[in-house]
Amino acid sequence: MLGQGVVKFLCLLVTFFGGVTSLRDVMLLVQPTTVIRGGTAALVCSRDMQGAPLYSVKWYRGNHEFYRYTPMEEPDTRVFGLPGIYVDMNRSNGTQVLLRRLDLTLAGNFSCEVTADSPSFATQVATKFIDVIALPPTAPVLKADKDRYQPGEVLRANCTSSPARPAANLTIYVNEEPIRSSETSLHPSESGLLWTLVKADLKVTPDLFVGGRLRVACIATVYDVYRSSANLDFFTPDTDPRPERITLNGASKCFQSWILVLLLFLLPVVMGQDIYTFLDYDDYDEKYIPAAIASLVGG
Questions:
Q1: In 134-243, which ranges are E strands?
Q2: Residue-level pLDDT at 237
């Protein structure tokens, strides 16, 4: 009987203290989880203390502690030097930490470790990955091997992104439909970032000239935070704008006009001085020079 009473008492004791001091449901919320280089991230550590007093909350990048909150100490917050970590002390406390000016080297796992006070000193850790990215500074560059294509020819296009981290994803479209690339490659830049090169080949058919135009586009994306594009338009021979040509008739008119001008200047030499009395040079300028100029452009 005595033994059973002791067991029951111990069970009640464990149940009582367990219900009062247990720690559970530690969760870490990061906003945003993808940060553009130089940006800001908020880390919020929530928990259910179940009535137990809080001993400490510690924040880690990987295995390195960079911030600690201990409500029973004075001061109650401490920052530990870690290269690239800038804690906004005015907006950080036992529940949240605000990080500013995040650099690419800080991409990785961030954790909050919550510890309850005596008698349990229960501890739980929650971890989230934060990605720090660098966006392409300029739009992609799209090129083709020719300026004009006829049905039956092969259109060869290539698209290049500017350096980024991660490398930009490039997709080539023809009339808003993606086409399969023939080659995709990544290349390192001097800054340590990566630029992308994509090539695609397409046999040109008449039905690709929708409304007389074939459009090739290249779209660059980085996750869901960046999107940029470049376009090339190719026209059918009937609609492709061309420089105006001088026709044979226009050339004949031009030749005749210059012959007329030459004869007008040579006649006084041949016929004598009396011809000059019949010529009004001001009137000639007004009537004949505009006509001669017009004939030069096929008028």
A1: 141-144, 154-160, 169-174, 177-178, 183-188, 194-203, 213-222, 226-235
A2: 66
